[in-house]
Write a structure and sequence with these properties.
Elements (H helix, E strand, L loop, with lengths): L1 H97 L6 H31 L6 H30 L3 H106 L5 H9 L3 H9 L15 H24 L14 H30 L7 H26 L1 H17 L11 H6 L5 H13 L5 H23 L4 H13 L4
Helix pairs in contact: 1-2, 1-4, 2-3, 3-4, 4-5, 7-8, 7-9, 7-10, 7-12, 8-9, 9-10, 9-12, 9-13, 12-13
Length: 524
């Protein structure tokens, strides 16, 4: 007995250790939960910052596009000034080459003066471009600004050359002196033309392409940065969802640990109480005390093992009884049988001699009108019987009647068309269809419980759609399913009309032949 008590004390000590372990786990979960909360907040802030940064980069890209447009505008202005200056220099050269008297110097002087004016405008435009590049961080590239400065110096050098030519022109106004110095002046003008051409080529072939390449590279970089920031924002958003799920897991774990700790605590207290009672009892009574203390309540054990799992049932669309549950199936079946019987007691084809001028479609719809009216009367009787004679559960009586009426319209048209197109073979076909639908239309059992053959075939028959629409009225509507089922049912109306108005025409003669042969047998 003493050894047993020592063993119980060891077990109790282990339980105490387990209890401390549970406390440590709960405390650790609490700390981890706090850390996750902080991390979740940080992730949210970082995600917002990344999204804002992506937006800012997008604005920078718009600014680059505007800068490219501005650069094109400046380039056009500078090119225009340089082209005008070059044209003026060429005019001056032409005048110089054609001049024979000093009086022609006036025309050359005017042309050279215009060249200087155009070059002044070129310097102004280039200075404006340089200032714009210095002011715009997207265009500020030191090498580009340096090139523009060099171009401005080259233009000013050309201006100096033209001014020297004008000075020589004024000095050598005498015929002899002009003739002697004309070749030198033509050379100076050629140099000026060559310099302006070089400046223009340098700007168009080197400076502007280099600036545009820089802008394109910057635009590609900003695009990559935008994509990266958007991906970072999306990833951080996903991390927030992960943290939320982890918080739920931690809370559930802490709750489970707390319940386990409470159970261990109760068991430990009971062991301590048992050990104390056994130690206080006499040697002859220790075993009895131990058994009485450790034994449980047999009634409670029996109750638990009889029903170890408690099930709570929550009914979403309650149906009062089995009869109400199968009402849609038997209602649809009655409507089909009624439509089939109508084709057995009424002729589907009027006598053509009675209506000699009637067209095929007029004969078709005219005779169907009788079947439609009789079918609707049958349907109304069935619905009234369900509601008032059998008193089935029905939350939406009007919609119940409307769905039944649409089902009656569909069935009567389909069966009428089959019999009209194929005669007695059509009647047999209608019987085969109803037999298949009784077994495999999900009317009494869920379609998932039926053989695979019916699971694949049932969607091609009208029964399931009429049954489902009526079920919505029996137990309660779900979303727009009622309307969807009726629209699906209308597909069979369209198929019936196509068969009755077009497809049956080629089989007319075959139908007449079959009817004639059947009459010849004198059995029908």
């Amino acid at each position: 007995m003493d050894a047993l008590i020592e063993h119980l004390e060891d077990v109790n000590g282990q339980l105490k250790d387990y209890e401390k372990t549970m406390d440590a786990l709960i405390q650790g979960n609490t700390i981890l939960s706090s850390a996750i909360t902080v991390a979740d907040n940080d992730v949210t802030k970082m995600g917002n910052n990344a999204a804002q940064s992506a937006k800012s980069v997008g604005e920078s890209q718009k600014s680059i596009s505007a800068t490219e447009a501005t650069l094109d505008s400046y380039t056009a202005l500078v090119n225009g000034s340089l082209t005008s200056a070059n044209d003026s220099l060429k005019s001056a050269k032409t005048a110089l080459e054609e001049a024979k008297l000093a009086n022609d110097a006036k025309a050359m002087d005017a042309a050279l003066t215009k060249s200087v004016s155009d070059l002044d405008k070129t310097v102004t435009d280039l200075t404006t471009l340089s200032d714009a590049m210095n002011a715009d961080p997207d265009l500020t590239v030191s090498s580009n600004v340096t090139q523009i400065t060099n171009v401005i110096k080259e233009v000013q050098t050309v201006k100096g050359s033209i001014s020297n030519a004008q000075t020589e022109l004024l000095i050598n106004q005498a015929d002899e002196a002009f003739a002697a110095n004309r070749a030198a002046m033509i050379t100076d003008v050629d140099k000026a033309i060559s310099s302006v051409t070089d400046v223009q080529n340098n700007m168009n072939n080197k400076l502007i392409p280099q600036v545009k390449t820089t802008l394109d590279s910057l635009n590609i970089t900003l695009t990559n940065v935008t994509d990266l920031l958007n991906n970072v924002s999306s990833t951080l958003g996903s991390m927030g969802n992960v943290f939320d799920s982890l918080q739920v897991t931690l809370k559930s774990g802490s709750k489970s640990f707390a319940q386990t700790r409470d159970a261990i605590e109760v068991l430990s207290d009971r062991l301590e109480d048992t050990i104390d009672k056994v130690k206080a009892a006499k040697d002859s009574e220790k075993m009895k005390v131990l058994l009485n203390t450790l034994s449980g309540n047999p009634d409670l054990y029996g109750e638990f093992f009889a029903e170890p799992v408690q099930i709570e049932t929550e009914v979403i669309y309650p149906v009062e009884n089995y009869g109400s549950a199968v009402t849609p199936f038997y209602t649809v079946l009655a409507i089909w049988v009624g439509a089939l019987i109508l084709t057995a007691i009424l002729k589907v084809k009027p006598n053509p001699a009675t209506f000699p001028e009637a067209k095929d479609y007029e004969m078709y719809f005219g005779r169907y009108g009788i079947f439609f009216a009789m079918g609707q009367i049958q349907t109304l009787i069935i619905v009234l019987g369900d509601l008032f004679l059998l008193q089935v559960q029905c939350l939406h009586p009007f919609y119940f009647w409307f769905a039944a009426a649409m089902t009656g319209f569909t069935f009567s048209l389909l069966i009428y068309t089959l019999v009209l197109a194929f005669g007695d073979v059509g009647k047999a076909f209608a019987v085969v269809i109803v037999v298949i639908q009784i077994a495999g239309s999900s009317g009494t059992y869920p379609i998932e419980l039926l053989p695979e053959f019916f699971q694949k075939l049932y969607i091609f028959f009208p029964f399931p759609y009429g049954i489902n629409a009526l079920r919505e009225c029996i137990a309660g509507m779900y979303g727009h399913d009622y309307v969807i089922y009726l629209l699906e049912l209308m597909i069979f109306v369209v198929a019936s009309l196509v068969l009755g108005l077009w497809i049956r025409k080629p089989f007319k003669e075959l139908g007449h032949f079959m009817e004639k042969r059947m009459e010849d047998t004198e059995m029908l």
